[in-house]
Every structure is written in structure tokens, then in C-alpha cells.
């Protein structure tokens, strides 16, 4: 007597445990392609190929997903700065970090704007990437500001490290925003960085 068997799940089905990551990656891609404004959990679910309610198993709402995407963005920014800094020293390292920061912003404008917007990670997690003083008070290099601060510490006096790092971050972030807003279309950004990030040169 023939017996029936349960249908096999489609190859694209996400097993328990990796749906959260799939949704996060889909949201990340959606923001980079279309910006934050059009992102919705429904759109992310559709992109992943799951039901409209599936994302709510992992993210309470859109803000929770945006917070997770923002955290990933900060981790990637840290990696970019660290890679740019590797093998260099002094002003050359600072200029390379500055270039990497601006390149990150221009390559991922939607993500970059999100990271510095009102959508912030769960405040119960320590330290929150953009939790004001908690972020810049971190003296290790496990976040993007820490990578910059560590390099600055090699070229200025100890009592000037924090203020100098904050000033340089503000300078480069401002340049990145001006580039994104198309206010510096024909300006040689590398020349600007070379002229302003000369700390540590003789």
C-alpha cells in the first residue's frame, strides 16, 4: 500500500536560527539600494521569501531591525578604518582612515545616514555604538572611533588624544556629509585630507 510522505521544504527555505541573519542582510541590502524611507518588515520578508509575519519572530518592529542594521554598519566601518590604517603610521595613517571613512559613506549612503540618525541600537546592550559619551569614552579599538583614537595616540601627547580624535572625526564626518549632499562635487578630497590631517609630521 503506497504511503504518502511530507513534502520537502524548498531549497530556499530558511531554517530556524538563520532567518534573523537573512532578514538582517536583506534589510541591509534594501537600505543600500533604496534608502531607509522605503524599508518595511513586509518588504524585507518579501525579499527573503518568507511570510509577512515571519520577521516579527526576530525583530519587534522596523526600528529594531534598523538598530541591528546600524550595528552591522558600525562594525563594517571599524573594519574599513582598521584595514586602511594597517601598515601605515602618523599622518599617512590618519589620511588613509579619513579616505576610508568617506569612501564608506559614499559607497553606502543610506546605511551611513542611518547609522548617525535617530535609529539607535537597543540601549540595554553595552556599549551602544552611538551612545554619545559611551562611544567616544571607549579607550579600546573595538569600535570605529577607537581605531581613530588609537592612531591619534601615537602622534600627540596623552592629554590631547581625546580632543584631537574628536576634532578629526568631526572634520572627516563633515567632509563625508558634504560629499553625500553634493556640496563638494569637484573638490579633491585627498588634497583636503592631506592638507588638514598632518598631525605627527615633522
TrEMBL record:
Pfam families: TetR_C_33, TetR_N
InterPro entries (UniProt xref): Homeodomain-like_sf, HTH-type_TetR-like_transc_reg, HTH_TetR, MT1864/Rv1816-like_C, Tet_transcr_reg_TetR-rel_C_sf
Domain of life: Bacteria
Domain HTH tetR-type: residue ranges: 17-77
Known DNA-binding region: 40-59
Single GO molecular function: DNA-binding transcription factor activity
Keywords tagged on the record: DNA-binding, Transcription, Transcription regulation
Annotated PANTHER family: HTH-TYPE TRANSCRIPTIONAL REGULATOR RUTR, TETR-FAMILY REGULATORY PROTEIN
Entry protein name: Transcriptional regulator, TetR family
Organism encoding this protein: Tanticharoenia sakaeratensis NBRC 103193
Amino acid at each position: 500500500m503506497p504511503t504518502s510522505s511530507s513534502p520537502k521544504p524548498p531549497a530556499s527555505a530558511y531554517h530556524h536560527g538563520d532567518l534573523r541573519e537573512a532578514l538582517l542582510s536583506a534589510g541591509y541590502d534594501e537600505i543600500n539600494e533604496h534608502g531607509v524611507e522605503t524599508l518595511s518588515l513586509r518588504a524585507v520578508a518579501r525579499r527573503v521569501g518568507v511570510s509577512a509575519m515571519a520577521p516579527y519572530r526576530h525583530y519587534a518592529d522596523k526600528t529594531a531591525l534598523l538598530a541591528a542594521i546600524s550595528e552591522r554598519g558600525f562594525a563594517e566601518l571599524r573594519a574599513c578604518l582598521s584595514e586602511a590604517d594597517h601598515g601605515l603610521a602618523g599622518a599617512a595613517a590618519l589620511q588613509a582612515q579619513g579616505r576610508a571613512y568617506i569612501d564608506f559613506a559614499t559607497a553606502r549612503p543610506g546605511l551611513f545616514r542611518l547609522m548617525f540618525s535617530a535609529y539607535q541600537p537597543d540601549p540595554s546592550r553595552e556599549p551602544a555604538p552611538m551612545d554619545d559619551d559611551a562611544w567616544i569614552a571607549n579607550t579600546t579599538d573595538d569600535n570605529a572611533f577607537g581605531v581613530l583614537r588609537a592612531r591619534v595616540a601615537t602622534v600627540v601627547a596623552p592629554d590631547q588624544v581625546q580632543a584631537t580624535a574628536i576634532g578629526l572625526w568631526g572634520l572627516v564626518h563633515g567632509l563625508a556629509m558634504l560629499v553625500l549632499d553634493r556640496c563638494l562635487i569637484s573638490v579633491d578630497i585627498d588634497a583636503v585630507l592631506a592638507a588638514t590631517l598632518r598631525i605627527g609630521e615633522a
